[in-house]
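Quick one: structure for this chain?
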Amino acid sequence: MKKETALYFGSFNPPHIGHTAIANYILNHSDADELWFVVSPQNPLKASSSLLPARTRLELCRLALNDHPKMKVSDIEFQLSKPNYTIHTLIHLEEKFPDRTFSLIMGMDNLQNFHKWKAYESILEYYKILVYPRHGYNVGEYEDHPCVKIVDAPLMQISSSFIRKELASGNDIRFFLREKVFAMIDKEGLYQ
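Got it. Here's what it folds into:
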């Protein structure tokens, strides 16, 4: 039987307690055996001006997961040609890990722009998408889609952009980040 692996794609710039809380909830309330944080070197739909180097974000994710037995960080997109598209990553992962099935985790805000993703129809056809709620967004046209599952996770009103803004203002945000993530950001003066 294939191992079900949920993929949580993102810039994780930086990873915060909202990311890890949602990941933990999905592991507890879905069929996923494992959950991988797939760190994207550069999202084709986002500007890169405030993006930390990919390897730094990868390390922050490793610190955030703190050796969780069912969560890991993947740098698979670092090895693929740029710009990187989710469909290419999924195909590559299926070839590399034939003993696994993959599903995607995304916020309802990303679902609103899903029609802009390369080959989104193929993703919808072949992969389950686990969608967590985001304030001010709804499922829209995907409400009755058989491959889209709304996960009744707690609503998280925290974002990486909020964290970056607070850090740039010199505010103390230690309780929005896992302890080791905060320690690295503080020590290296990241986002300031």
